[in-house]
Amino acid sequence: MVTIWKDIGLTSHNRNELIDISSLIATEVEKSSIEDGFCLIFVPHTTAGITINENTDTNVIHDILLTFDRLVPKIAEYRHQEGNSDAHVKASLVGFSCTIPIISGHLHMGTWQGIYFCEFDGPRNRKIKVNIYGE
């Protein structure tokens, strides 16, 4: 069993933004030379997350962000004093990690799927931790 840890830096440009990181992750998997295993992606931030969704129609991203803003408005009766409670809630709803199978040296994902870093308190410099493990 081989395991590789990698930190990848990202910069978000908007307060709420989904950034397609599929090619970044795929490149790391290919560089690892692991043929069969798993890729774990973890976001070590409390106001950002990670998700997998459609990456061919940008309207899907628009719709996701619109829905989050409607479900979790920026201004509400929050008690957290930093003014970013909505970002914490959105990140908790999305989650902070995902695991993708690696088969024959490539991420095994659906035709329309992409990996998205979800920024809810930007713009910021962020990082993601990637663990590629297998044989």
What does this structure look like?
This protein is α+β, with helices and mostly antiparallel strands and 135 residues long. The chain has one domain: Sandwich (Jelly Rolls), CATH 2.60.120. The chain has helices spanning 22-32, 58-71, 85-94; strands spanning 2-11, 17-20, 37-42, 48-54, 97-103, 106-107, 113-119, 125-134. The strands form two sheets. It has a five-stranded antiparallel β-sheet, with helices on one face. Strands 2-7-4 form a three-stranded antiparallel β-sheet, with helices on both faces. The mean pLDDT is 97.
How much strand content do the residues show? Answer: 35-45%
Structural class: alpha+beta
Distance between the termini: 5 Å
What's the number of structural domains? 1
Question: Which geometry do the CA atoms define?
Answer: elongated
**Shape-level CATH architecture:** Sandwich
Sheet with most strands:
5 strands, antiparallel
User: Would you state the CATH class?
Assistant: Mainly Beta
Low-confidence residue ranges: none
What does the average pLDDT come to? 97
Radius of gyration: 16 Å
The H-and-E topology, N to C, reads as: EEHEEHHEEEE
**Oligomeric state, counting identical vs distinct chains:** single chain
Question: Total strand count, please?
Answer: 8
CATH fold name: Jelly Rolls
* Strand ordering within the main sheet: 1-8-3-5-6
In CATH, what is the homologous superfamily?
YjbQ-like
Kindly state the percentage of residues in helix. 25-40%
Number of helices: 3
In short, what is this structure?
The protein has 135 residues and is α+β, with helices and mostly antiparallel strands.
